[in-house]
Design brief:
Aspartate Aminotransferase, domain 1; Aspartate Aminotransferase, domain 2; elongated; 17 helices; alpha/beta; Arc Repressor Mutant, subunit A; four-stranded antiparallel sheet
């Protein structure tokens, strides 16, 4: 029985289909070939809008194919909007093609100006910093403080992710708890209890997209315009930018060789609402806050009711002693928000972190997160939970700790060889970077010319920064590349003052 498609019936003679139809590609379906050729004719203009096409029987006879083949091609073109059927009158090229809706219409210009009203932005928009220009991803070079991309077990990670996807149920894929995937929260609670002395349960853990996301949640829940916030000076520049956007009163507190000093903070602000600190490895200077200062800070906050935001961005990497207990683990009656990230121990693009707070406050943070982004990507959470539970994360961190220690030693040794006493290394033996203060240098190196990426510490200070102080990462490239980078730096900074050789001073 012949297929009777109403929009293909033709009662009048049609214009012959004048298309240079080529031969079908080997292995291709005939109807698909015919569909593509007719569509090309329509888009190129050889078949004008409103043109009536031949009957399916005539077209099949013309090209030596079955009528069913032509019907399938016409049906596909009709469903996509290229053809339209007129009952009792045949099949025509549509007057409006799908591509018409993919092209933006020009804006009417009156007296040299757009007729559209310029949209107004909020006051908050004017307080936000300008976003940096986006550029193509470049391979790591000296001295980027990033994880080594070549050392992450990507094949194993891919296998875990594939297994999670194959085993995911429809219920899991439909939605998720705004606090995060519970098995991941349980795995993080167990991991932090062993590695950082943070005693918590899955109910205290909220999965976030990184430290910045956690800080944004905290700002929304804790601060009102005009509230005082004590911030380490120097610190990562996005922190004061976010606080400024929230109309907080920023109180810079200078950092010394023992980190944040609560005594100095008291002199500068009697009743701060929030204190931002990086006690495990201060960024960028690198000292570790001793237990005495941690207890003094907690005692002050207990009396004043201040919150603490504990940024623990790279505490996994310590090279000469065990890490001290986190502030969260020492606190009893002080609201501490503890935040960490996996982008330093795994790879930057994972964008998964964790926010830990007391069970009495966790539901408030969960509510704030729900209003912002519902929940974090589920499949990556599932894979990460498996990665932690099987011991792969701990194994990877141990291997990277040994490797990064060797790379740090190579960098320090190269600086000693090429610069001697002209390069002073600050901070503890920890983290993914060192801070170096150079003496008697003429200019900052140019990455394009000198082949190194050196970050001036001046961008992190509120106050006047010491001259020629730079952040130098050592984790992303090999020991050989680090030594070559220092050699390039010496050539870029010639002449320089070179003192006596010395060993590792930090």
């Amino acid at each position: 029985m012949a297929l009777d498609v109403p929009f293909l019936r033709m009662t009048k003679a049609a214009t012959p289909l004048d298309l240079p139809l080529g031969d079908a590609r080997p292995g291709s379906k005939i109807w698909r070939w015919l569909y593509e050729e007719i569509r090309k004719g329509i888009l190129s203009g050889r078949l004008k809008r409103g043109t009536r096409l031949p009957a399916t029987r005539d077209l099949a006879r013309q090209h030596g194919v079955s009528r069913g083949t032509v019907v399938m091609a016409f049906e596909q073109l009709h469903s996509e909007g290229y053809l339209e059927g007129r009952t009792g009158d045949g099949t025509y090229v549509s007057a409006s093609l799908p591509e018409d809706f993919l092209t933006a219409q020009p804006i009417a210009i009156v007296d040299g100006r757009s007729s559209r009203t310029k949209p107004a932005l909020s006051r908050l928009a004017n307080r936000l910093p300008n976003a940096p220009g986006m550029s193509s991803v470049e391979p790591p070079r000296a001295f980027s403080p990033e994880p080594s991309p070549d050392e992450f077990p990507i094949a194993t990670w891919a296998q875990i992710a594939a297994r999670c996807l194959r085993g995911a149920t429809r219920r899991l894929l439909a939605d998720s708890d705004c606090r995060g995937y519970r098995p991941l929260r349980e795995a993080i609670a167990n991991y932090l209890g062993e590695a950082r002395g943070v005693r918590c349960t899955a109910d205290d853990v909220i999965i976030v997209s990184g430290i910045q996301h956690g800080l944004d949640l905290t700002i929304r829940l804790v601060l009102d315009p005009g509230d005082a916030v004590c911030v380490e000076d120097p610190c990562f520049p996005i922190v004061p930018s976010m606080l400024k956007a929230a109309l907080a009163k920023i109180v810079p507190v200078p950092v010394d060789d023992a980190g944040f000093d609560s005594l100095e903070a008291r002199r500068r602000s009697r009743h701060p609402k929030l204190i931002y600190v990086t006690p495990a490895h201060q960024f960028p200077l690198g000292p570790t806050m001793p237990v005495s200062r941690r207890l003094a800070l907690l005692e002050w906050c207990s009396r004043t009711g201040a919150w603490i935001f504990e940024d623990d961005y790279d505490s996994e990497y310590r090279y000469h002693r065990a890490p001290l207990p986190a502030l969260y683990g020492l606190a009893s009656d002080v609201p501490v928000v503890y935040i960490g990230t996996f982008s330093k121990v795994m790879y930057p693009g994972i964008r998964l972190g964790y926010l830990i707070t007391s069970a009495t406050l966790a539901h408030r943070f969960a509510a704030a997160k729900l209003t912002m982004d519902r929940h974090t990507s589920l499949l990556e959470q599932m894979a990460l939970a498996d990665f932690i539970e099987t011991g792969l994360l701990e194994r990877h961190v141990r291997r990277m700790r040994r490797l990064y220690q060797q790379r740090r030693m190579a960098l320090v040794s190269a600086l000693d060889h090429h610069f001697g006493e002209a390069a002073e290394i600050l901070g503890d033996q920890a983290g993914m970077h060192i801070l170096v203060r150079f003496r008697n240098v003429e200019r900052e190196p140019d990455p394009a010319r000198d082949g190194v990426r050196l970050t001036s510490a001046s961008k992190y200070y509120f106050s006047n920064a010491p001259a020629n102080e730079f952040v130098m990462g050592f984790t992303a490239i090999t020991e050989r590349a680090l030594r070559e980078g220092v050699s390039r730096l010496e050539r870029a900074w010639s002449p320089r003052a070179k003192g006596a050789k010395r060993g590792d001073r930090g």
